[in-house]
Design brief:
Blueprint lengths: L1 H19 E7 L15 E6 L5 E8 L11 E6 L21 E3 L2 E5 L4 E5 L5 H5 L21 E10 L5 E8 L9 E6 L14 E2 L6 E7 L5 E6 L2 E2 L2 E2 L3 E4 L25 E5 L5 E10 L2 E11 L14 E2 L12 E6 L8 E6 L2 E2 L2 E2 L3 E4 L32 E7 L5 E6 L2 E2 L2 E2 L3 E10 H5 L5 E4 L6 E6 L3 H5 L9 E5 L5 E6 L4 E5 L6 E9 L2 E10 L2
Antiparallel strand pairs: 1-30, 2-3, 3-4, 5-6, 6-7, 8-9, 9-10, 11-14, 12-13, 13-16, 14-15, 17-18, 18-19, 20-23, 21-22, 22-25, 23-24, 26-27, 27-30, 28-29, 31-32, 32-35, 33-34, 33-36, 36-37
Length: 531
C-alpha cells in the first residue's frame, strides 16, 4: 500500500510539474568536490549510497594533477555535499567503467579483469576470500595461465537475481585452449566459474572481438552488443538477440554494417528504454542500407529495425586546435523516472544536430532538443592542470544519475559547468520555468503556404517587443531549414517580421523551419515542400 501511495504521489507531482511549468536545471551551490577529483580523465559512473553519499568509478588518476587527493585512481567515495566520505579507506582501481552492487560490495569491469570492492573501497578478495581474485588477466595474452580464466577484455556485467554474474567481453575458460575466447559467461555468486553456461561465441574469433553491453527484455530475452559480426554462426553485426535460455534468436537481424574489427570504438548499445527500444552510439555507426554514411546516434525498435519516428542524432566536437579531443560520441543516455517524453544524453560533443549543446542535452521521443532543461549550457572546457591554467582539453560528461527528488548528478572530465567552477562532478537542482515563459518561445512563427513550392513566408505571430529580445537581449539572426535527421539543409539571413524565402532548390519532403539566435533555436514550425 505504501509503494502504491508513493507511486500515485509521484505521478501527481510529475503531472503538476508538466501541467503548470517546464523543468529547468541549475547548479547546486552546496555540492562541491573541490579539487579532489580534478583529473584529465573522467568519472564514468555514480552509485548512490543509503546515507545520501556516492560511490564513484572512472578512469581518473590524481597522481599528476592532484597528488594530495585521497582518491588516487579509479574509485572514490563522497558525501552528499561532495566531501570525502568518512568511511573511505583509500582503495583504488586501474579503471572502473560501470558500478554494480553485489552482495555487500561493488562489482565492476576494469577492462582486463573484474574487480570487487567493499563499500569502503578495499579489495573484496583480500578481505573476505580468494574467489573474486581469480578472475583477471595475468601475463601476456595466451601465456602466464595460472587461474581459471584468460581474460582479454571485460566490458560489461549483469547481476542476476540469485547474485550470479553475467560477463560480456572476451574470456577464455577452456584450460586446454586458453586462446579460444568465449564472449558471454557466467560466474556463480561466490565468483567461481559456472561450467554449465552454454557457449556464446562472437564472430570472428580475434583479439578485438567482444561483447560490450548486456540488456534483458521484459520477456526474459537478452540483447548483446559489441564489436562482432554475429553470434554462434548467426550473422547480426554489432547487436544480437538471445532467447531466455541464451540460444540465439535467429529471427532478429541487425540493421548495422559490419566492418573489419580493429582498434577504436564501434557501434555500441547505450540504453534499452522503457519501450524496449535500443539506443546506439559510437564512432563507427553505419547502417547496412547506407554503409558510406557514419552516424552518431540511432534508435532501433525491439525487432531490430531502425525507428522511423526518431530523428537520427548527429554530433560534433568543435574545439580549438591543440586541445586533446577523444572520439565524439554519446556515452550516456538515461530516461528520467519522473519525466515524460525526455531523455538526457551526455558524452564528448559540443553540438547536437548543429545546435550548441556543451557535452549534455535533453531530447524528446522524436529526437529533438528540449532546450529548457539545460538552457543550451553544460561544460565547455577541462582545465585539469593546476600548474598551467592554459592547458585545456575537450570536456566530457560520461556519468548521469537521476535522483528520486528529480536532481541530477553529473560526472565526467570538466572544470566548469554552466559557468560555475566544478571539477569532474556537479549536482544539478531541478527547478521550473513558468509555462507562460516557455510558451513565448513556442508558436512564435507562422510559415505559409504549406505545402510550399517556390517561396515561403515566415511571419512572427507575437508582438515585436516579445520576440525582438526574448533571450538575454539577443536579436534574431537567421532562419534555417532542417530535415528529419537533424541536418541543416538551408540557412537564410533574417528578413524581419514578415520575410519571403526561396525554397525552390529544396527536394520535396517534410522539413522543420527554425528561427535562430546565436545557434539557439527559439521557435520552429513544420513545412512540406512539393514541386
Amino acid at each position: 500500500m505504501r509503494l502504491f501511495c508513493i507511486a500515485i504521489i509521484s505521478v501527481l507531482w510529475a503531472w503538476n510539474i508538466h501541467a503548470q511549468s517546464t523543468v529547468a536545471y541549475t547548479v547546486d551551490p552546496d555540492f562541491n568536490t573541490q579539487e579532489t577529483l580534478r583529473s584529465k580523465t573522467s568519472v564514468f559512473d555514480i552509485y548512490p549510497l543509503e546515507d545520501g553519499g556516492f560511490f564513484l568509478g572512472g578512469g581518473f588518476d590524481m597522481i599528476f594533477t592532484n597528488p594530495e587527493s585521497p582518491f588516487t585512481k579509479g574509485i572514490a567515495m563522497i558525501t552528499e555535499s561532495g566531501d570525502i566520505h568518512p568511511d573511505w579507506e583509500g582503495g583504488q582501481s586501474i579503471f572502473c567503467r560501470e558500478l554494480h552492487f553485489h552482495d555487500g560490495g561493488y562489482l565492476f569491469a576494469t577492462g582486463e579483469g573484474l574487480t570487487k570492492k567493499t563499500l569502503s573501497g578495499l579489495s573484496w578478495y583480500l578481505t573476505f576470500g580468494e574467489a573474486w581474485g581469480d578472475y583477471y588477466k595475468i601475463g601476456e595474452w595466451g601465456s602466464g595461465y595460472i587461474n581459471p580464466y584468460n581474460v582479454r577484455w571485460t566490458w560489461d556485467i549483469f547481476i542476476l537475481e540469485d547474485q550470479s554474474v553475467l560477463i560480456g567481453g572476451a574470456i577464455a575458460t577452456d584450460t586446454l585452449q586458453p586462446g579460444l575466447f568465449r564472449h558471454l559467461m557466467r560466474l556463480l555468486p561466490d565468483g567461481s566459474h559456472d561450467a554449465t553456461f552454454p557457449i556464446i561465441e562472437a564472430m570472428p574469433q580475434g583479439l578485438n572481438t567482444h561483447i560490450s553491453k548486456i540488456e534483458r527484455a521484459g520477456d526474459g530475452s537478452w540483447y548483446v552488443s559489441g564489436r562482432f559480426e554475429g553470434i554462434n554462426g548467426h550473422i547480426s553485426p554489432h547487436i544480437a538477440k538471445l532467447n531466455p535460455d541464451f540460444t540465439v534468436d535467429t529471427d532478429f537481424v541487425s540493421p548495422f554494417f559490419y566492418e573489419s574489427i580493429c582498434c577504436g570504438l564501434h557501434t555500441e548499445m547505450k540504453l534499452m528504454d522503457s519501450q524496449e527500444r535500443l539506443w546506439f552510439s559510437g564512432d563507427q555507426v553505419r547502417l547496412a542500407e547506407n554503409p558510406d554514411e557514419v552516424l552518431d546516434l540511432v534508435r532501433l525498435l525491439p525487432d531490430g529495425t531502425v525507428d522511423p519516428e526518431f530523428a537520427i542524432g548527429r554530433i560534433e566536437a568543435n574545439y580549438p586546435g591543440g586541445w586533446s579531443v577523444p572520439p565524439s560520441l554519446v556515452s550516456k543516455i538515461i530516461e528520467p523516472d519522473l519525466e515524460d517524453d525526455v531523455f538526457f544524453l551526455s558524452g564528448v560533443f559540443s553540438h547536437y544536430n548543429d545546435t550548441a549543446q556543451p557535452a549534455i542535452t535533453a531530447i524528446n521521443q522524436a529526437g529533438y532538443i528540449q532546450e529548457n532543461y539545460f538552457g543550451n549550457q553544460g561544460s565547455t572546457v577541462n582545465s585539469y592542470d593546476p600548474n598551467d591554467p592554459t592547458d585545456y582539453d575537450a570536456p566530457s560528461i560520461r556519468a548521469l544519475e537521476y535522483l528520486p527528488d528529480g536532481s541530477l548528478m553529473v560526472g565526467g572530465s570538466f572544470s566548469d559547468f554552466m559557468g560555475v567552477e566544478r571539477y569532474s562532478m556537479v549536482k544539478l537542482n531541478q527547478g521550473t520555468v513558468g509555462t507562460n515563459d516557455q510558451d513565448r518561445l513556442e508558436n512564435v512563427i507562422k510559415v505559409y503556404p504549406n505545402p510550399a513550392t517556390d517561396l515561403v513566408t515566415v511571419q512572427l505571430v507575437t508582438s515585436d517587443a516579445l520576440v525582438s529580445a526574448p533571450l538575454n537581449g539577443r536579436k534574431i539572426e537567421s532562419i534555417r531549414v532542417v530535415d528529419l535527421s537533424g541536418r541543416i539543409i538551408a540557412s537564410y539571413l533574417w528578413q524581419g517580421n514578415l520575410g519571403n524565402y526561396d525554397v525552390s532548390d529544396l527536394a520535396k519532403g517534410l522539413y522543420i523551419v527554425e528561427i535562430v539566435q546565436e545557434e539557439r533555436k527559439i521557435s520552429s514550425s513544420k513545412i512540406i515542400i512539393q514541386h
